[in-house]
């Protein structure tokens, strides 16, 4: 599944805005997406380091228009916690030399609020 297919849209509510200071971002995601796919999609699209992904299924609400009654569709919500203080990763390369990872990560998602 492509990263653009996994994340449907960001969820902007008062509760999700409170989590932004802690590095928690809320997204509506594809119902078939797994936590690993969601983490990879957020890392690819926004160039941040994902620490944790929490998912939940949201049941649709019953709605009625006049006599007719129906139901809105169910959807999946993901709360993604990112690393707000990314540091360089070091690992041992061939010959036992210590090497730093050259990938740079952002500390926030600027596109989340439309900025």
Structure description:
By secondary structure, the chain is of the alpha+beta class. It has one domain: 2-Layer Sandwich (Alpha-Beta Plaits), CATH 3.30.70. The protein has three helices and eight strands. The protein has helices at residues 3-6, 14-18, 35-46; strands at 7-10, 24-29, 50-58, 62-65, 68-71, 75-82, 90-92, 98-100. The strands form three sheets. Strands 1-2-6-3 form a four-stranded antiparallel beta sheet. A two-stranded antiparallel sheet has the order 4-5. The radius of gyration is 18 Å and the shape is elongated. It starts with a helix and ends in a 15-residue tail after the last strand.
Backbone CA Rg: 18 Å
Number of strands: 8
Q: Largest sheet at a glance? A: 4 strands, antiparallel
> What distance separates the N and C termini?
27 Å
The secondary structure category is: alpha+beta
CATH architecture: 2-Layer Sandwich
Quaternary structure type: single chain
Overall pLDDT, averaged? 88
Name given to the CATH homologous superfamily: RRM (RNA recognition motif) domain
Uncertain parts: none
Fraction of helical residues: 10-25%
Shape summary: elongated
Which strand-content bin applies to the residues?
Answer: 35-45%
Main β-sheet, spatial strand arrangement = 1-2-6-3
Total domain modules: 1
What string, H for helix and E for strand, traces the elements in order?
A: HEHEHEEEEEE
Look at the structure and give the CATH class. Answer: Alpha Beta
Count of alpha and pi helical runs: 3
């Amino acid at each position: 599944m492509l990263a653009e297919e996994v994340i449907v849209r960001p969820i902007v509510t008062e509760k999700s805005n409170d989590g932004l200071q802690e590095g928690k971002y809320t997204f509506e995601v594809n119902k078939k997406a797994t936590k690993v796919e969601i983490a990879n999609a957020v890392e690819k699209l926004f160039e941040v380091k994902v620490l944790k992904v929490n998912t939940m299924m949201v049941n649709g609400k019953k709605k009625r228009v006049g006599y007719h009654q129906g139901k809105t569709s169910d959807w999946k919500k993901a709360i993604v916690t990112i690393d707000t203080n990314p540091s360089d990763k070091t690992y041992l390369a061939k010959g036992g030399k210590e090497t730093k990872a050259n990938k740079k990560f952002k500390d926030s998602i600027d596109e989340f609020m439309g900025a």
